[in-house]
Specification:
Protein name: glucan endo-1,3-beta-D-glucosidase
Order of helices and strands: HEHEHEHEHEEEEHEHHEEHEHEHH
Radius of gyration: 20 Å
Catalytic activity: Hydrolysis of (1->3)-beta-D-glucosidic linkages in (1->3)-beta-D-glucans
Mean pLDDT: 88
Number of helices: 12
Bound molecules: 2-acetamido-2-deoxy-beta-D-glucopyranose
CATH superfamily: Glycosidases
CATH class: Alpha Beta
Shape: globular
Family: Belongs to the glycosyl hydrolase 17 family.
Number of strands: 13
CATH topology: TIM Barrel
Keywords: Glycosidase, Hydrolase, Signal
CATH architecture: Alpha-Beta Barrel
Distance between the termini: 23 Å
EC number: 3.2.1.39
Largest sheet: 9 strands, parallel
Length: about 375
């Protein structure tokens, strides 16, 4: 069956806002990156994607594997790349020799032309359906780290593993943040690894999920970073005007309750879908444009969370493209800024006056198509 994605008409105002602010300028913000997910059968070739990212002045991207075609395409670009060890092979990395071989095959040949700056060992391992995975996490990060040290390529490559927010028992208020008791042992070992290697804790944090689960309780404007009264954490007296920062600070508290300080928390994924099923409250082009636009604006202002006021929060937006082969509810296939053919799926809503930047019109938008 042929699938036609019926696109929402782009309102003139939104278009005008967009054209006059051009997300192209946004980027080049050093704390901001994008997730280049590829669970799709219709994406443009990697070289075209590098062109797109370059035109957006993006300097950071993250992929979910070590696809050699993608790694080669990023060679000699200005884009730093974080790559991922797939969950399926974590168990093999239990063996230091295999870890060394993995790095030798999948990472080393692409250096230094491809700027690989991070290796994420597994994805959301703590909360994976396969509960046997978690036992391999710490051996795998340790062995990968030792392998890159042994090969003399560890200077610019951080090794870590992103977690979903479901690792938390509680995230409200942020000062009450704590990890689930059942993962405490392995979390302690993992945090100890991060602390020793000075690597960040990456969290995938989606205010959309919280809103979708409880739309009558969660103020939409708070979830979207729109103007709203926000909340005050009664323990710290810190004021939060958006849910993402509250989630991040809850993770900071959870880590510190395990006895670790000084581990930086970064957001490996966040985003908002432009489309969802009927029971997925809040999924819309308008909300996605607001969330992404507000996030980008705050990134340009190099904002930090209330708890770590001096540390600009690093964020990777999810995602570059809509991904047609993702399973699950409709929202899962509709987080992209772009349709696979390069048409814009959603326009981050940016107010150029507020942003204080007048940017060029980017010709890539004129055609709106990346030709494969
Ligand atoms: C703090 O978290 C615990 C669970 O760890 C929860 O039972 C409690 O209600 C939370 N406190 C507040 C004020 O929400």
């Amino acid at each position: 069956m042929a699938t036609f994605i019926r696109r929402m008409p782009i309102s003139y105002t939104l278009l005008l806002l967009f054209l006059s602010s051009d997300i192209g300028f946004l980027l080049g913000v050093s704390s901001f990156g994008i997730n280049y997910g590829q669970v799709a059968d219709n994406l443009p070739p990697p070289a075209k994607v590098v062109e797109l990212l370059t035109s957006l002045k993006l300097t950071k991207a993250r992929i979910y594997d070590t696809n050699p075609q993608v790694l080669s395409a990023f060679a000699n670009s200005n884009i730093e790349l974080i790559v991922t060890v797939e969950n399926e092979i974590l168990n093999q990395l239990d063996d230091p020799e295999q870890a060394l071989q993995w790095v030798n095959t999948h990472i080393k040949p692409f250096l230094p032309d491809t700027k690989i700056t991070g290796i994420q060992v597994g994805n959301e391992v703590f909360t994976d359906d396969d509960i046997t995975l978690i036992q391999y996490l710490v051996p795998a990060v340790t062995n990968i780290h030792n392998a890159i040290s042994q090969l003399g390529i560890s200077t610019n490559i951080l090794v870590t593993s992103p977690s979903s927010l479901a690792v938390l028992e509680s995230s409200y208020p942020p000062s009450n943040g704590s990890f689930k008791g059942e993962i405490a042992d392995i979390m302690t070992q993992f945090l100890s690894f991060l602390s020793t290697t000075k690597s960040p804790f990456w969290i995938n944090a989606y205010p959309f999920f919280a809103y979708k689960d409880d739309p009558s309780e969660i103020p939409l404007e708070y979830a979207l970073f729109n103007p709203n009264p926000g909340m005050v954490d009664p323990v710290t007296n810190l004021h939060y005007d958006n849910m993402l920062y509250a989630m991040v600070d809850a993770v900071v508290f959870a880590i510190s309750k395990m006895g670790f300080d000084g581990i930086e928390v970064k957001v490996s994924e966040t985003g908002w879908p432009s489309k969802g099923d009927e029971d997925e409250s809040g999924a819309s082009v308008e909300n996605a444009a607001s969330y992404n636009g507000n996030l980008v604006r705050r990134q340009m202002e190099k904002e930090s969370t209330p708890l770590r006021p001096k540390m600009a929060l690093e964020v990777y937006l999810f995602a570059l493209f809509n991904e047609d082969l993702k399973p699950g509810p409709t929202s899962e296939r509709n987080y992209g800024l772009y349709e696979p053919d390069g048409r814009i799926a959603l326009l981050p809503k940016l107010d150029p006056l507020h942003v204080g930047v007048s940017a060029d019109f980017n010709p890539m938008w004129k055609s709106n198509i990346i030709r494969p």
